[in-house]
Amino acid sequence: MSDRAVIWNDIIAGPEAERMLNAALENVASGLSKMAGQIIYHTMPEINLLTFDRVTARYNDLEAETVGVYLEIQSGLHGWALLMLPLAFALNLADWVMNKPQGTATGLGQIEKSALAEVGNVTLAYFLNALAVLTHRPEILMPSPPFVMVDMLGAILEVILTPMAASRDDLLIIETNLQDKAEAMQACFWVLPQLAE
Amino acid sequence: MAENLRVVYIGEMVVSDARDDVLVAYGLGSCLAVCLYDPFAKVGGMLHALLPTMPNGEPATRVSSPPTGSHGKPTKYLDQGVPLLIEALVKLGARRIYLTAKLCGGSQMLSRIGANNHLNIGELNVLAAEAVLHAAHIRIQARATGGHSGRTVKLYLANGLVMVKTLYEGEQVLG
User: Fewer CB within 10 Å, N or C, chain B?
Assistant: First the structure.
């Protein structure tokens, strides 16, 4: 098993896995709360191994207009991350991050997309930072620049599935939901480890 | 006639001779849906493929013995999946000489101004489909491919009608 696979194995299946993932997601929620000026919570993380068809079959509406912020994890670990949220919630989040009253953003222009890109960056960076400290491996800290997509949910999911498809028929997903108390924003955060070299 | 929606999930193919079946692939991004239809036998099918070619793969020749290896299901790949789709349709009663194709998908979902686009999987998928259909002497009648938007495609088995939908342009007949 490669070093990267060993690190991922510790994070998702080792004796301290549950504690580490919860701590990493607490860090994410804390970082997002500071950024948004709202209290953001995370749900209990789940680790699921799903075939590609099951990944998409879970959703009732693959045509739903969705915002996806996509990042690659580089350097010490390899993998991908995806932050997904319905457009309405993305607009609320953009307003909070830009310190504007909720309801100000009515569409995702370049400024709003930049704000959401930064949210994606912060989300993954806080996640990786926490894991780097907990695993004593400071080298696992490198997210790529984020891509922001606004399109059908199914098309956004394909972005995650395609890099994996050449070597496997299934996907290991670490997933959680991020939301505020008033439910003005709900986002799904996925981290997908690349276990094979 | 009541419509029976049959979803073609990612990496899968579906064939049918049932007149009320409507085959649908939702939210195609870089993936490509290949729709084949024989208007005389009224038999049709759809492949929802992710990648252009199987790494080091041999061409698929029989549905019962698809290539094996560590690269998974052959229907993820256009070079493997299209021959399998053709063979399945022939088994269902289609005649190769009457089959026509319509393509949908192959978008580039990740794009930035100035970014290096040489790894545009959507475009590679379209090229792979063109190559394998050309080799099979199947004409591409129409296409809704490329660009940067997601698409949903439906194939109506009753008459071979193909409808394509995007978020911002609604639903339109293809071809």
Answer: N
